[in-house]
Specification:
The chain has 248 residues and is an alpha+beta fold. The protein contains 8 helices and 4 strands. Helix 1 packs across helix 5. The protein is globular. The relative contact order is 0.19. Bound molecules: flavin mononucleotide. Flavin mononucleotide binds next to strand 3.
Length: 248
Amino acid sequence: MSPEFALSPEQRRGVYAAIYGRRDVRHFRPDPVPPSVLARLLDAAHHAPSVGFMQPWDFILIADRALRARVHELFLAERARAAETFPEPRRSQYLAYKLEGILDAPLNVCVTCDLARGGVVLGRRSMPDTDVYSACLAIQNFWLAARAEGVGVGWVSILCPDQLSALLGLPPTVVPVAYLCVGYPEAFADRPLLEATGWRERLSLDRLVHYERWGGTPTGDWAAVAAAVCERAPFEPPRGGDCAPSPA
Ligand SMILES: Cc1cc2nc3c(=O)[nH]c(=O)nc-3n(C[C@H](O)[C@H](O)[C@H](O)COP(=O)(O)O)c2cc1C
């Protein structure tokens, strides 16, 4: 039996499939994303949680190739600066990566955060950055909905925010949070590029979970949680009960 408010097994499978199957996409086919699909992604983003229901996000849709070429120039300049921060052989590896799809993707979307939206915002006084956190949640909604629709999204942060703001004409209280490349991908890889190519490994989840305090170990009732975290079993619909038995 599922808890009263759980989604159906099929719905749950879909949610986890989008979470685990989402990838940062850098190679795109040129086919445009249909308006109705794009509208669904934007509406999914617009239903993200936000501090004090501030909804600080805006979405700038960019298809113009000349404008995208200028953003790409900003990327190249910033990538060159960033490369200098890595010693060899990492620098060469970094420069060999394709870290954007600005010109390949048919659509770019800049997601911004209006720091002044809504005046005094409930819940933001002690943590002023919660406006940007909220914008990030909208981006994640967009990314997951895109995966569900078979649309690829790649986040490009190798851009100088001031130069990007000037290029896109952002008002003084609005900051860019994400520059996204959006379109149908050539593939959704099984693993992150940076993992598959040995740049960095996925951290072990059990080392990131603390019990009662930083560094706290799983004593008492937490032992079962720690064991389950170690197993890290992905969602499987329950057999029987609320799920049709699988065919023999
Ligand atoms: C805030 C943020 C900024 C990122 N910036 C870039 C970027 O500039 N270029 C890039 O290729 N990937 C970028 N990524 C994608 C990450 O490299 C990617 O999410 C990570 O390697 C895990 O891979 P996955 O998203 O495919 O699971 C960014 C992701 C986030 C969340």
